[in-house]
Structures are given as structure tokens and as C-alpha cells.
Amino acid sequence: MSTPELAATWARYQLWIAGNCVTQVETGDATFRRSVYGSLYPLAEWIASNWWLLTTSIRPSAIEPGYWTWPNVRSQHWLRHHNMRGAGDGMAWPNLTLVPEGPVTSVHWFADHDGVAGPVRFMSAGGAFVNSEDAATGLAKLVEQVLERLAEEGLPKTRLAEDWAALAHLDDEEKAFCAAAARLGLDPFSLGDRLATEIIDVANGLPDELGADFFDNADAKALAKAVEWTRRASSVATRASVKAKSDLTSLSVAVAPEIAAAKDYTDRAWEVGYIMARRVRRALGVQHTRPFDVSPWLAMGEVSVDSGGIQGIGIVDNSRCGLVMGSPRLSRQSRFFAKARALGRALVRPGQRSFLLSAARSHDERVAGAFAAELLAPAAGIHEFLDQLGRQDDVALEAVAGRFGVSPLVVRHQYDNQLARRSP
Fold first, then answer.
1. pLDDT surpasses 80 at 267
2. DSSP code at position 243
3. What's CA 4's distance to the chain center, in Å?
4. How far is residue 330 CA from its own chain's centroid?
5. Is the dihedral of CA 257, 261, 262, 268 positive or negative?
6. What are residue 88's phi and psi, to 5 degrees?
7. Most confident of the following: 114-118, 226-230, 359-363
8. pLDDT tier at 241 (50, 70, 90 boundaries)?
9. Residue 128, pLDDT score
10. What is the pTM of this model?
């Protein structure tokens, strides 16, 4: 061992997630085992130095999990902060990525290819959602166990101990700043004074219910533009809401039972969205083979200036919803889907006045995305049309998309996520 810290924390460790052994490996002599030897000090130090990104930054959720693998680190720099191989120091770490998404954390791990060099080759691959509080507790427990081992070995004063103690002594304002910076995808302890001050000023000037959404979406290099656009778009969306022909009351009543039950399956946010959409269609008497027009419940306005990375803003005023998109040049189908997503966001949080649409897959965005897909192109309707066509290829899916007036991609996702899984 090159340092006392590495030597003192040498261990044999196993990692299990949702009943899966992540540390199942093949050794150089072609034998298999479920544990790995190495020093846990680098991993604990990596957890401590990336704590806020690991527990708060949901931005990577906008990227398909297939890209969350360590070989992509050159093009996906964020992996250094979210993939365990970022711990480095020559140890064998699983190719495992953690991305928080609100109440749940998405975890994906990947097997090593045959050509990977090293003393061991990780064989397990999979993915799971875990409770975010449990994930944070597990990460913290590992750090504390490493610190205990170091203290037992006469090494209580280490950089890890200093970093961990500093995290523990942050006050509420400092924690709020760290969370805002991490939501921007930035390390809160590596920022220049100018950017740090700008983040604080922006946070203080935003409505509380927009803060998290804003920092999840805004371009860190264009915060001033994002703030200006949000303020202007908020006013425009408020004025647009008056033009909505119908208020949200009847729809809110229809989805209320599902909203109340949503806490029972936070790891399956899409199920909430699916059921909400079915309740809305049922309440309004719209059959699952008919297109659905969201326009009566949502009116749109436009702001022509650069949005600074913000996808869109919705305002609920007097139970009517107005929407402004960050890019006014969306295709008709994209605009159609965005409106349905916004309706989902408006319904999922009764009492909220404002929200931002996001590419990041927070819990509410997952609900809203599933709601929009099922509202506009119900799985039952897709199934019925495909039966009539007698085929399930791309041509058939495009034909079904035409019947519902949505993008073929929406129908493809509905088919893959709800119908293909039922096939024998």
C-alpha cells in the first residue's frame, strides 16, 4: 500500500442492490466470486467529495441510462461524479452509476467486456430504483465505517475526516447553496466567488416552488438569461391562463384518488401518470381509441428571447393553466405533447401555482411524461388498432400515431413500455 490510509482500510467487500450482487466478478484464473478485495478509503473519499452531486443532481437523468457506463466518461464528464469508477486509485470498482431523481435514485451497473484488462472482471449488469434516503444512508454509512477503521488504526486526522466533518457542520443557508449548485451540475466547493454569488442572488429572487426546477434546467453559463426569461414567461403564461376555456377542477377531482395513493409507489412514478390519464379520459367519457385535445384546459403564450436552458413554464391561476415553451419553434406534435405534459404537471401537485418543464426525469416529470403519453395515445387503444391492422411493425405504429395525432416515437414508447412486456 502506498499510504497508511489505503493500508488501514484494505477489505473484502460485497455490494448488493435490490437482491442483485453487483460485485460478482471473474478473476484472472477464470474463477468466480461475489466479493472484491481493495482499499475502501478512495471510495469513501469519492463519496464525501461528490456528496451533493450524488444526492441532489438529477440532470444526468435526462440522458438515456445506456450511456451511463464508464467507457463514456470522455463524452459524459458527469460520470466522474456519479460512477463508482471515479473513485480510482487503482482499485477494482464496479461500473455503477447513481443518479438521484427526487424520492428515488436510479442505479445502473454494467458488466465488463471480455477485453477489459485488470485483475478482475465484473460480470453483473442491471438497474434498479432505490429509495433516495436509503441510498444516502448507505453511502454515509460506508464513509463512517471507513473513518472508524482509520481511528482504530491511529489515523483519525485525514483529509476524509476533515471533508466529512465540514459537510456535517454546514448550516441551512450553506446547504441550500450546495443543493442549488449541485442541481446545476456543479461541485459547490469548486466554484469561483462570482458564480457562487450569482447562484445565491438567483435563488433568493425565485419563488420557492420554482427553485428546484430552475436549477435543474438552467444553463449554468447563462443564469441571467434564464432568470430574465423565467420572469417574462411567467407573466405571459399568467395572461395566457385567462384564455383557457375550462378550469382544472373536474380533472383534479378525477385524479385525486391516484394522487393520494402515489406515495405508495414512488419507485413507479409512471404508473401514477398512466392511471391519472385513464381517470381523466373516463371522467370525460373519451374512449381509448379517440384522440384527446388538451387545449380547453391549457392556453399558450410566447416569449421570443433566449430561455437560458429552460424548457417551459406553466402557471396555474384561478384553476386555469397557461404555458410558455422555451423554444417557440417546436413541431406541432412536440407542442401537442408538451401541452399534455404541462397538464400532467398541473394536476400532479394540487395547489401549486407555477412549475418548469424539464428534460431531467424528476418524479413529477416521470408522472407527467407517462400521463401525456397515455392521455394522448392510450395503450389499450394502440393495442386495438394494432389488432385491426394485424401487424406490429414500424409501419403499423406510424399508422396508429397518425390516428392519435402524435409522434410515432410516443406510440413506440407506449408499445415498448406497456404492450411489448405483456407479449408471451
1. no
2. T
3. 39
4. 23
5. negative
6. 55, -135
7. 226-230
8. very high
9. 94
10. 0.88
Closest CA to 256 of 238, 280, 239, 233: 280
Could you report the per-residue pLDDT of 274-303, keeping only the tens digit for each? 999 999 999 999 999 999 999 999 999 999
Residues 44 and 143: beta-carbon distance below 8 Å: yes
d(C-alpha 160, C-alpha 186), whole Å: 20
Dump pLDDT digits (tens) for 16-30. 999 999 999 987 777
Is residue 106 within 8 Å of 63, Cβ to Cβ?
no
Residue indicated by cell numbers 405483456: 422
The amino acid that residue 17 corresponds to is I
Alpha carbon distances (Å) from 91 to 1, 3, 34, 119, 245: 11, 14, 16, 10, 62
Say how many CA atoms lie within 13 Å of 245 toward its Cβ: 4
Task: Please report the sign of the dihedral spanned by the C-alpha atoms of residue 186, residue 189, residue 195, residue 200.
Answer: positive
**Whether 119 contacts 113, CB under 8 Å:** no
CB neighbour class for 246 (10 Å; exposed up to 12, middle 13-18, buried from 19) = middle
Tell me the one-letter amino acid at 278: R
